[in-house]
Amino acid sequence: MPIENIPEIYLEESKEPKDIFVYDFKMTNDVVKSKVNLSMNMFSFLQVGKKQVHFADTSIAVNKEQSLLLKKGNWLWTELLDMEAIYYCKLFFFSEKKLRDFLKKYTNNSKPYQEEIPYFVIENDAYIASFISSLSSTTFTNQSFSDALLVLKFEEIMLYLLNKYGSKFEYYLHSLISKEVSPFKKIVESNVHSNLKLEEIAFLCNMSLSTFKRHFTTEYHTAPGKWLKDKRLQKAKELLEGGDLKASDIYLDIGYNNLSNFSVAFKNKFGISPTDISN
């Protein structure tokens, strides 16, 4: 049995998956236990038919009265037609990046213990039915504001489900975040607020500076110098706002060799000098 890479098989060959997108899925043949490599988290809003998903140690079945939020991973699923010989669902995919952005924006970003269940069953209601009817892949394709609209739709359903299910749903969303951190990212992020230079962090990663920069850009999608500078200046601002420290107390720890360079960089980023905060 071949493995279906979803959502990749729903995309045109020339296109890469977006962080959020909708796909209208229809079929006229039963599919029993197809192997699926799901590379993005996904809402499955079933409209017609039945769906069963098999996980490592459990399975779940839903009909059109329920919807599923599925964690990315390798699953088996069965899709069965209704009496009219059709199966139809709307699939709403979102990346881990968008999930992190949402949690940071709307929750306290705590990470409570939660058993890692790969699915969340949603009981459909009038609001969810209205939301589903507003989703269509044709609506959100090649329009001027399609991406912005999709972000709003994503936040809409997430906020509604947080309101509907409370902490149970919030904990589930946190469980979707990947727990594994690469050794490279551990070294980088443990030295964010140190005064180490890029060359020194690259050495700790057992990489040349050029290799480090390439690897960093792949992991973080931005240049390492700018990323570290922004993080360290933000930390400096927080320290100064605490009221106990002055710029002269912290500039070395933030990675600057002299107070003047630190003050210029700080003002360029925040529009005010460090002394305007600490005085």
Protein model, in words:
With 279 residues, the chain is of the alpha+beta class. It has 2 domains: 3-175, Jelly Rolls; 183-278, Homeodomain-like (Arc Repressor Mutant, subunit A, Orthogonal Bundle). Helices cover 41% and strands 23% of the residues. The chain contains 11 helices and 10 strands. It has helices at residues 96-106, 126-133, 146-165, 167-175, 183-190, 198-204, 209-220, 224-241, 247-250, 259-270, 274-278, and strands at 3-6, 20-27, 31-38, 41-48, 50-54, 59-62, 66-70, 73-80, 87-94, 119-123. The strands form 2 sheets. Strands 1-3-8-5-6 form a 5-stranded mixed β-sheet, with no helix packed on it. α6 (198-204) crosses α7. The radius of gyration is 24 Å and the shape is elongated. 24% of the residues are buried. The mean pLDDT is 86. This is AraC family transcriptional regulator.
Distance between the termini: 69 Å
Q: Can you tell me the CATH architecture of the largest domain?
A: Sandwich
| Highest CATH level, the class of the largest domain | Mainly Beta
Binned, the helix content reads: 40-55%
Number of strands: 10
Multimerization status? single chain
The Cα radius of gyration reads 24 Å
Shape: elongated
Strand order, biggest sheet? 1-3-8-5-6
Number of helices: 11
Series of H and E elements? EEEEEEEEEHEHHHHHHHHHH
